[in-house]
Each structure stands twice: as structure tokens, then as C-alpha cells.
Specification:
Length: 227
């Protein structure tokens, strides 16, 4: 399902937070499509922002740091964003990405490992900066518990990310939405009304195709490593 957009504003550059998302969603974001946010989602976003600032304050007080909110920009790929924090660990620069989730998601991460979108964002930072270590910190908004995952750069995954960003940027510049990449994630997507006419249709299509199968396919997600 491809469609022209009627939006006139220039497209945004690719935000690293879109790295692990459905390509169609990423392009909608670049073309500034609105989002359908319910009060619960808005509250979670505000709480996430508050905890984010709190985490950065803690980090500044507890350990030497290289940068907080380090700007990242890649002209060729048209990527622009900010890394939550950069620290030096045993001589190596380490990018830190801090995320908050609800209790249910936190339990799921404990069983299945970190969310693909979170890992992809951190992997993109490593790909574009050349830093040799990334740390993903996930905090439970309901209990304050945290989990930490460490990653090294992964050349294959980095190549996949570059392909995806190039495809998203080409679509955004042409003002054309890519095909849907239907998966379970559509259930929580705040732009799902741009892809399905009713909730029933959406849920049926998710049931028929629950797994995220991006185009191009990737071989594997970077594995968390012990530091
Ligand atoms: S509803 Fe699904 S296919 Fe559509 S933008 Fe959201 S995640 Fe992508």
C-alpha cells in the first residue's frame, strides 16, 4: 500500500530513535504525520522525560562523563539526533542510551532480552560514531528497577541500518510512503490509522502476520555482551 502524501513541509532528517521501527512509520515521522496519543501514552512520555533528566543528573554527579546529550549528525545519511550520554570506560568511549518502560514490558525484557528498537538505536550510534562500546539502560517506571545491556559494534547490522536509513530518506524525499511492515508492533503504533481502516482489520492482519520482517531482512540482532 503506497500513497502520496499531501504534506508540503520539508522532510525531517532521520532520527536515531526510528532505527528499529517499521520503515513506513519512520517515513511518516520524517514527513511530520500526526500521532494518535492517548492520555496513558502521554503520561508515560512525560514520566519518561522526567526520569531521563533524573538519570542524566545522577550520572553527572556519580562519574566523570565526556558528554551529556551529545549531538550526532551524519550529512550523507541525513541522520540527526542526540546520544543521552557518553562516558569513558577503561580508555574506550561508551555511548549510553536510557529508556523507560512499564512493568509488563520490563518483565518481558527480562525474559526475552532488550527490545529491538532500543538495540537498533544504540547500534546506530556505534555505527556512526565509531565508539567501541554501547550501554543500554532500561528502567521500570513502576518499580525503579534497572537492567543494563552492553553491545559492541556489529558490521552486518550497521550495514543493514544504513540500507534502511537510505530507503527511508529516499521515500521521504519522494514524499511516498513505503509498504506496511505488519507485525505485533502495529497494535501499539500511534499512527496505525494510516495503515488500517478499522481496529478489527488491523488485528486480523496482525494475527496473520505477527512477526516483524523488515525489508531488507537482517541476519541477526547484535548480541548483548558482558563488560
Ligand atoms: S501500523 Fe504497523 S505498518 Fe503501519 S506504520 Fe505502524 S507499525 Fe508500520
Amino acid at each position: 500500500m503506497s500513497s502520496k502524501t499531501g504534506h508540503k513541509q520539508p522532510s525531517r532528517w532521520f532520527s536515531p530513535s526510528l532505527a528499529g521501527m517499521c520503515l513506513r512509520y519512520a517515513v511518516m515521522d520524517m514527513l511530520r504525520f500526526g500521532r494518535s496519543l492517548d492520555p496513558v501514552s502521554l503520561q508515560a512520555m512525560h514520566e519518561g522525560s522526567r526520569r531521563h533528566r533524573q538519570f542524566q543528573q545522577e550520572l553527572m554527579q556519580q562519574q566523570p562523563y565526556v558528554a551529556i546529550e551529545q549531538s550526532i549528525r551524519h550529512e550523507e545519511l541525513r541522520v540527526s539526533g542526540r546520544i543521552d550520554a557518553v562516558v569513558r570506560v577503561e580508555g574506550e568511549l561508551q555511548a549510553i542510551e536510557f529508556k523507560t518502560v512499564n512493568g509488563e514490558r520490563f518483565a518481558q525484557i527480562g525474559q526475552m532480552g532488550p527490545l529491538f528498537a532500543h538495540v537498533a538505536q544504540l547500534a546506530l550510534y556505534l555505527e556512526l560514531t565509531g565508539y567501541r562500546l554501547g550501554c543500554l539502560i532500561v528502567e521500570n517506571r513502576e518499580t525503579d528497577e534497572r537492567r543494563e545491556y552492553y553491545f559492541r559494534p556489529d558490521a552486518d547490522f550497521g550495514h543493514w541500518l544504513r540500507q534502511r536509513i537510505a530507503a527511508a530518506t529516499a521515500s521521504a524525499l519522494a514524499r511516498r510512503l513505503p509498504e506496511r511492515e505488519i507485525s505485533l508492533g502495529c497494535r501499539w503504533c500511534d499512527r496505525w490509522q494510516r495503515c488500517f481502516t478499522t481496529e478489527e482489520q488491523r488485528d486480523q492482519m496482525i494475527a496473520d502476520h505477527p512477526l516483524f520482517e523488515p525489508n531488507p531482512a537482517f541476519m541477526s540482532m547484535p548480541a548483548a555482551v558482558s563488560r
